[in-house]
Task: structure prediction
Amino acid sequence: MNSSGINMKHLRKLLIALAIFSLSISLFAQPSGLEVKWFRVGNLHSWYSSLGCELEARGPLGDQMEGLNWPAQYGRYDNQAAKSMWIGTTDYVDPTYNDTPFPYKVVVAGTRTADPLRMIMPIEFSMIGKFDHPLVIVDGNPGTDMDYGDIVDVVDPDISADRIIINKVNSSIGITVTRTLSAYSQQNNDNYFIYDYVFENTGIIDLDGTVVEKTLTDVVFHFQSRYAFGWVPFEEDWYPSNNITWGRNSVNHTIFEDPDNGDPMRATYVWYGPHSQSIHGCDADWGLPHPTEGRALGHPAYTGVVVLHADGSADDESDDLSQPSTTAHLGSDGDNLSFDQYVPSVMATYYENMTKGHPEMSIWEEMQSSGISCGDQYGGDPGGYSPAQGYGPYTLAPGDNIHIVFAEAVAGIDYQKSTLVGNTWFNDAGPFDLPGSGTTTDRNEYKRQWVQTGEDSLMQTFRRAKDTYDNNYVIDQPPPPPSEFLINSGGDRIILNWNQQAELDDNFSGYQVYRAEGKPDAFFEQIYECGPGTDKAQVVNQFEDVTARRGFDYYYYVLSVGSNGLVSSKFYTMTNTPAYLRRPAAESFTALRIVPNPYHIKARSLQFNASDRLAFYGLPGFCTIRIYTERGDLIKTIEHEDGSGDELWNSTTAARQLVVSGLYIAHFEVTRKISDEETGEVLYRKGDQTIRKFVVIR
Result:
């Protein structure tokens, strides 16, 4: 048993069972035979499907926009609406369709169509972790999102990335696709994923493993990414139009050279295009600001793909800088019509789109040349436009393969800067400091320039991804996090303990502890550090937070610090369950009080920095609290059974309604005999009771 009184082995088994149960729920939400796994170890979170790509509205939540969540700590700042992987060839005699000859044969997974039984068929899907996520416990309860979002199948400390997903699919065209996805948690490389594809002509055409050997001609591998921005404004109902959730206003741009040094850089990227229906006008909509509040921008990020490698041919493994051969964007609706792998005209249309080549101008360049400033006013496709890359054409004899690698990234101004820019813009209190140097009196110009620094951040991320690939996926690593992090709430302090596992790493130097008050998606402040070079040179494994305030929720994470300046990811140990001070039980009813009283709902956030919270202090250790209206209607019953003197209530009735203005009566009834442990004096008898009145003002 440890300090929390929990058998860790049993608890670990329980958490694994809960994780498997949660995963099972997500499996049931998928088409038969499909699975989903998550990358959640860095600042970019996303889900992946065993199907080989991530179809529209097929994520765990089934939302139109779901995936590529950045910055991942602050709610649903998702960037992804749909993906597709299409494979095409020419002059194909189809053994799965009575040897019918097709001038163009295409198989697809996405953006909306999939057939996991007869077209692109999953055969392998697993995740490897450098180490498993830590055990995080808050007051005896599971306390981390990682328990259900980071399901590692195999631990291999020798892998270069922190997480690797292996995904293999066969296709009815006879090509087997092995997709190896890599994610990192190191703070300078935690906002991109690397997609490593090997397309091999195995001749396997069905789930029975039937092999039909033939040489495939003019083979093209085509990827499409439909990006959309603004899920948080959509959820909170302050969006200019709901069509932002499917990317109608998304603007894309393609480059072939690094804008800083002219080196080859094959990249396509997308951002939130200002919307014509913004109430402040299109020019004011850069970054999607809240129309009536000063707060973080709705979506200031840039998202895109950079090519890291593409074979020249099956006999030439050198990187062919002429690939991808196609970068033409597609209509997200019009070019993603219903698909059937046995209809020649449909496959011919798809193949044509897969081989369109390079447009003279990107959408961004077309908008600039034609004076269009609003993203939603470009083109006529109601779904907007999706960037795409087509590789080929290749000739693949039986046994041949093609290797293609790219990275997908999200970058922009961080959440703190986004909040500052959003507040400054809303309050219109210039002059406004511009990035780099200089000022302006134009608040829209100020906001636009800060949002556009996200483009530079994305280029930097692309370069880091390229360096990682060129270095055979090896990057500098921080020490791992502690493998156990336990938080226990006390009466006058919250006690944090972690184990010494991280100290076995040669690079280990010390620890840092961070805390947020009120909610887990708030700013975390560093409240403690230890190790060489700090005020606490001695490395310890416990911290007592004596500055916590009674009635407030607290969330924590602990970082392992490396001698190279790198730190373990906060997501490994970040708690999602609040810890809060619990005073010892009172020895009599005379100490009992309700805080605040009166309770003014309009000022509710001022008391505890939490919505709709009332506190009962000075309670017996075990009692039932019943809340009545002035008329005597029972609206809520709370069983207080943790032995402390505190209980918190979210001012919500048993019918899940917030209490209205009025006078309320709280009735307290002791549920067991309670005696002084030292003297044996009886403090309460079962059935002892009292009442208190309190007032709610709306």
